[in-house]
From TrEMBL:
InterPro entries recorded: ATPase_NBD, GppA/Ppx_hydrolase, Ppx_C, Ppx_GppA_N
Coiled coil: none
Ppx/GppA phosphatase N-terminal domain span: 44-322
Stretches for region Disordered: 1-20
Positions with biased composition (Basic and acidic residues): 1-11
Molecular functions (GO terms): pyrophosphatase activity
Organism: Jiella avicenniae
Domain Exopolyphosphatase C-terminal intervals: 331-514
Protein name: Ppx/GppA family phosphatase
Amino acid sequence: MLQDSSQDKRPSTAASTELPALGRLPGAKPVAVIDIGSNSVRLVIYEGLARSLTVLFNEKVLSGLGKGLAQTGRLDGPAVESALAALRRFALLAKQAGVEDVYPIATAAAREAQNGPEFIRAAEAALGREITILSGSDEANGAAHGVLAGFHRPEGIVGDLGGGSLELIELTGGGLGVGITTPLGGLRLRDLSGGDLAKAQSIADSHVSSSSLAGRGEGKPFYAVGGTWRNLAKLHMEQQGYPLHVMHAYEIPTAGLDGFLDAVVKSDPEKLPGIAAVSKSRRALLAFGAVALRSVVRFVKPEKIVLSALGLREGFLYDKLSDEERAKDPLLESALELAILRSRSPQHAREMVDWSRRSFEALGIDETPEEERLRVAACLLADIGWRAHPDYRGKQALSIIAHAAMPAVDHRGRAFLGLTNFYRHEGSLEQQHIPELESLAGERLLKRAQILALLFRVTYLLTASMPGVLDQFKWLQDPRGGFTLAIPAALADLIGERPEGRLQQFAKVVGQALRIEAR
C-alpha cells in the first residue's frame, strides 16, 4: 500500500523549503572581527559573543601590507589594493551571514605607515564602518585577553608575533603587566635585516634582551600567539610524530629547542623534514619566526612554549564580555554546547555530572580540582556520538572530542575526554585501542577515563539517556561488604542480566564489591 506523502513530517530536500539550522545554538547572534594586520587581512565570524567562541566562517588574504615598510615608511601599493578588495568582499560576507556587530581593527602596519591614514579612510569606505586602530599596548593586552579566553587560569608570558611587530606581556593571577611592542614581526624583521638571518638574530636579541620581560619567564610558560609560530609548531609536531594534531595548547619544552630552531634558521625551508604540514604561503617567514622565538627562549627564559590558537581577535571580544561571562569555565561552556547540539538529552548530561560526583564520593574516588572539571566535561560529552553506527561510535566520538575546537584543556585532558567516550562505547579495556593517546593521557587519567566510562555504561542501560531518573539512584554501604546501587522499587524491572554484567565490570575497575537492588 502506498504511503500518503502528505503525512510524512520529515524535512523536504527541495531547495525552496527553508530548513532550520539545528546544528547552531538557538538565540546566538553572529559577531565578526575584521583584523587588518601587517601580513594578512582576515575576517572571522563567530556564532555568537560567548565565553567559548565558535567560528562560523574564517577567511584570510595574505596582502602583505607591511612589506617594505621598514625601508619606505609607506604601505605597498599592490598590497593596499589587495587589502581593500578583501575588505569589500568581507563586508558582503558579513552581511550575508547576518552579522550586525562587525569590529574592524588595524595593527602595526596601518598604525605606523606614512600613508596609513589614507589607507584607513579607504578601508572604512570599503567596510562602511569605523576602524579601531590599536596601539602596541592595545595589541599586547588583546593577545593576553585571547590567552585568558583560551586557557584555564593561565599565568606566564604572552607573545604575539605578527607581520610587523612582536608584542610581549606578562599574565599573572593579579592581572596584566605592561605590554611592550617590538619591531620583530616576520615581515619587519626580514626588511630590517635585509633578509640576512644572522643580522636578524642580532636585532631580535638586542630588543628582547633589553626588554622589561628579560628573565621574567623562568619556571613559567610562554604563550605563543600568531600564525608564523603556529606553523613552526606544526613543523615541530610533524617531526616529533606527535599523535594529536591540535595546535591549541600544544607544548614544547624549551630544553633542547635550540636544535630545532637552528635547523629552521639554517636550512632551505623546502627541504625541512615535515615541511608539507606548513602552507607554502607561510614558509618564507618561518626562519624569521624561529629567530624571534630563539631570542625569547634565550632572554625571557620560559620553561616551555605553549601554543595558543586564540589571540588578538578573540581577546578583543573577550574584553566585551560581562564579568559574569568571563568567570565561566570555557571548557565546560564548550562541552555543554556540544551536549545541546548532539546529545539525546542535554538535561540527562547535566544529571550525569551530579550522579558521577555522588558516585565518586560514595566509592571513595578522590579527584583534584582539574580532574573534577575534566569529569564534568566528560559527562556533558558522554552522549554526543549516539547517531553514529554502533560499530564506529567509539572511534567517531573519540575523533570529534580529541580534535574539537574546545578551549581551556591541555592535550592530556583532550586524550582523557576522548578516551572516556571511546571506552564508554567500546566497553573493552583489555587491549591497547589507541596506544598513542593512552600514553598521552598518562596512567592516572587513563585509569579515571576507564572508571568514568564504565560508570556511564551501567547508567545508560538504566536510563536510556533520558532525564528524571538518575536523581532517584543512590549508593548504600552494604553490610555484606562494598556498596549497593539502590534504585526505586517502581523501577525494579530495569534490573537485568546486562546491567548486572556491566556493574560487575565497573566493580572490577574500582576494586569494590558492588550489587544492584530495588529498595
